[in-house]
Amino acid sequence: MRIEKKCWPEFFQKLADGTKTYELRLADWECNPGDTLVLREWDPKQGNTPAGR
């Protein structure tokens, strides 16, 4: 299963740069071994629109 979650720009950039190597979140969704977590950059200043990364 592919799980997509929002990630704010300041955290997304650190993950993209490699200065942050993990994202710790409360699993309030169904998650199983083998699932893929996809983080999408969302800027709260732009409203409910993805930032494109």
The strand count comes to 2
Strand content: 15-25%
SSE sequence, one letter per element:
EHE
What percent of residues adopt helix (DSSP H or I)? 10-25%
The biggest sheet amounts to:
2 strands, parallel
Number of helices: 1
Number of domains: 1
Classification by helices and strands: alpha+beta
Structural Rg: 12 Å
Report mean pLDDT, rounded to a whole number: 85
Euclidean distance between termini CA atoms: 20 Å
Gross morphology is: globular
Identify low-pLDDT runs.
none
| Strand order in space, largest sheet | 1-2
Task: Describe this structure as you would to a colleague.
This protein has one domain. It has a two-stranded parallel sheet. The two termini are 20 Å apart. It is built from one helix and two strands. Helices cover 17% and strands 23% of the residues. The protein has 53 residues and is an alpha+beta fold.
What tags apply to this protein structure?
53 residues, alpha+beta, two-stranded parallel ribbon, 1 helix, globular
Layout of secondary structure:
Layout: E1 2-7, H1 9-17, E2 36-41
Parallel strand pairs: 1-2
Give a summary of the structure in a few sentences.
The protein has 53 residues and is α+β, with helices and mostly antiparallel strands.
